[in-house]
Structures are given as structure tokens and as C-alpha cells.
Design brief:
Length: about 80
């Protein structure tokens, strides 16, 4: 894995933890089984960093709902831009 990819994955996990949504993200990814053929670590390595949240699971099917995850996604995009 490229050094930049590792850094982005670390940034993403830190972002989720700092925002208090790491567990919710992980559970939605695993429960929805949107990418049943990909373990979460593999998914994080291959997806476009700006689209990690959008591509991880269907926001509308999550307990938190579409608006909640769209807000988190917007924060993630702003976080990436600031790095």
C-alpha cells in the first residue's frame, strides 16, 4: 500500500473517532454488507478518499438516516481539503 493511502486511512479513522462516529460507521458497513466481498480494511485502501463514506453503505438504510451521514460526509470532505 502506498504511503499516502495509509495516511488517508489513518486520517479517516481519526476523523471518525474524533467525531464520535467510528463505531456507527463500522457497524453500518458490516451490517448492511454493501460490499460483502470486501473486508473494511480492503475497502478503505481501494476507495477514493473523498468518497469513502458515500460508497461505504446506503445512508438511507442506516438507523441514523440520510441527513445524519450526509452531514458527516460534508465534514469529512472539508476535513480532507484542510489537510
Amino acid at each position: 500500500m502506498e504511503k499516502k493511502q495509509k495516511e488517508i486511512i489513518k486520517l479517516f479513522i481519526r476523523f471518525l473517532k474524533d467525531d464520535g462516529v467510528y463505531y456507527k460507521f463500522k457497524m453500518n458497513y458490516l451490517i448492511q454488507n454493501y460490499h460483502s466481498h470486501l473486508k473494511i480494511g480492503v475497502f478503505l485502501r481501494i476507495v477514493n478518499p473523498r468518497r469513502i463514506l458515500i460508497n461505504a453503505f446506503d445512508f438511507s438504510l442506516s438507523e441514523e438516516g440520510m441527513d445524519y451521514w450526509m452531514c458527516i460526509n460534508s465534514k469529512w470532505e472539508l476535513f480532507l481539503i484542510s489537510q
